[in-house]
Amino acid sequence: MINMKTLTKLSTKTLFKTVFLAFLATLAGIVNGFLGTGGGIVLMFALSMLPTEDDNAVRDRFATLIAVILPLSLISVISYGDSIDFSAATPYLLPGMLGGVVGALLLDRLNVKIVKKLFAAMVIWAGISFLR
Fold first, then answer.
1. Angstrom distance (rounded) from CA 11 to CA 54
2. Which of 23, 61, 70, 84 has the most CB within a 10 Å radius?
3. How many other CB atoms sit within 10 Å of the CB of residue 34?
4. Measured on CA atoms in the order 39, 43, 46, 49, is the torsion positive or negative?
5. Residues 6+ positions from 21 with CB-CB distance below 8 Å
6. Dihedral sign of CA atoms 99, 102, 108, 109 in order
7. Looking at the whole model, is its pTM more than 0.90?
8. pLDDT tens readout for residues 61-84
9. Which helix (H) or strand (E) holds 104?
10. CA 78, 82, 88, 91 torsion: positive or negative?
11. How many Cβ atoms sit within 10 Å of the Cβ of residue 47?
12. How far apart are CA 125 and CA 64, in angstroms?
């Protein structure tokens, strides 16, 4: 038999977590649109709150992060409108796409602990470089 008290507790906890994750996703969109970067960091924090079964789940989170950031970035680009200088962005497009393919291939081959440390190092490096 189902204990209603336990079910209510689980439902409240699940509801809170869902609302909190939705808040973090909204915050990721705001940060991405406002700063042009950083939404992925907020989303990685949100995704890290979900339970993991194995290393593949962690790898899937990094892949999911990319899938979410792409539309967020596209919406930001559309919102910026005429203030974007596409000619200045052009030299970075092809190398960036090639790097994305290489990164996706490496994600499946590297140990998850190394991937997490690389992500953390990139966040720290980016933060320090913006303080200069």
1. 25
2. 61
3. 11
4. negative
5. 46, 49
6. negative
7. no
8. 888 888 888 888 888 888 887 888
9. helix 86-109
10. positive
11. 21
12. 23
- Type of residue found at 90: T
CA 12 from centre of chain? 26
- Measured between alpha carbons, how far is 62 from 60 in angstroms, rounded to an integer? 5
Place of tokens 């909190």: 20
Residue with tokens 């559309």: 78
Which ranges of 36-54 would DSSP assign to H, the alpha helix? 39-48
- Per-residue pLDDT of 97-114, as tens digits, reads 999 899 889 988 988 889
Residue pair 112/55 in contact (Cβ under 8 Å)? The answer is yes
